[in-house]
Amino acid sequence: MVHHKKHELNFSWELTAHPDYKIFSNNENANENEYILLDFENTVLLRFSVQEESFEVTGSSWDTKYKVTRSRKIIVLTEPEVYEEDEEEDEE
After folding, report:
1. Where is 58: in which H helix or E strand?
2. Do residues 50 and 13 touch, judged by C-beta distance below 8 A?
3. pLDDT digits (tens, 9 = 90+) for 23-58
4. Contact between 38 and 18 (Cβ < 8 Å)
5. Between the CA atoms of 36, 39, 41 and 43, what dihedral angle is there, to the nearest 10 degrees?
6. Half-sphere exposure for 71 (CA within 13 Å, toward CB)
7. What is the domain extent for residue 9?
8. Per its UniProt entry, which superkingdom is the organism in (predicted)?
9. pTM score over 0.70
């Protein structure tokens, strides 16, 4: 079982996702709190922003699943796809 990685975001928000996913932000500017979450193939899974009391998705891939809690936690439920050849390598 894979342990998901937690990422601290602005305004005490937290994102939890698979450790193979990467998150980037533009929060060099204090007024911008936008983030993108990429998978291991650098496909954008989720493009979003956070504010004190809000979470806004501005784009996502068609199959990205996530949930948001009242305690400012964003949990990405989508796992990386495992291909048959990857499974065969794991068995060796």
Report:
1. strand 55-60
2. yes
3. 999 866 655 689 999 998 999 999 999 999 999 999
4. no
5. -40
6. 3
7. 5-91
8. Bacteria
9. yes
